[in-house]
Design goal:
The protein has about 210 residues and is an alpha/beta fold. The chain has two domains: about 150 residues, Rossmann fold (3-Layer(aba) Sandwich); about 50 residues, Orthogonal Bundle (Helix Hairpins). The protein has six helices and seven strands, in the order ββαβαβααβαββα. GO terms for molecular function: structural constituent of ribosome.
Amino acid sequence: MKSRRHPSAKPFIFGSKNNIEIFNLEKTSKELEKALAFVEGKGKEGVMGLWVGGKSEAREAIMKAGRELEMPYVAGRWIGGTLSNFSEIKKRIIRLEDLTLQKEKGELSKYTKKERLLFDREIEKLSIYFGGLSRLKALPKFLVIIDPKKEYIAVAEARKIGIPVVALAGSDTNLYELNYAIPGNDSSRQSIAFILKELVTAYKKGKETQKIEQ
């Protein structure tokens, strides 16, 4: 909405209708191209990214992108310290992997029914918060975020460490805080799915280039 517009978004706004911002698609397209070139470069390098989008409109598309690229993702609440206190987060990821493996191998059967129930609850809880992070073995080389205003903690942690951020950002967002801001509707499932598909394709393109050159 116009009343919530951040000054940094003003150059990308074409106008408004019924107090709803309308983005200048030509300018958005130019920013998208910059973001795609960056992500393609990361694909060429073959480095790991982290895909973030906890809002209901983004979760499914974020999970799809992460799984398609075999990369970590956060499709729920961002856990503070995921980047800035990664050593502790890594312990929780390893704990989840260990418990899951033990359960699959039947190694938890030696415990009492009550103890197994506690293990199941721990696995369930860890899966909710850390299930999408199982591939995060080290700090990511870039972040892709849907709605950086909502995911402000993730943005702050990335900036503190120096990890580049690519984000689909609404008009209420401070675009200056983002390395590659894609000004657009970050509350539309269609918009989110389109942008993520483009970014996934760009990464794959870069990765294919890497294979050819090798």
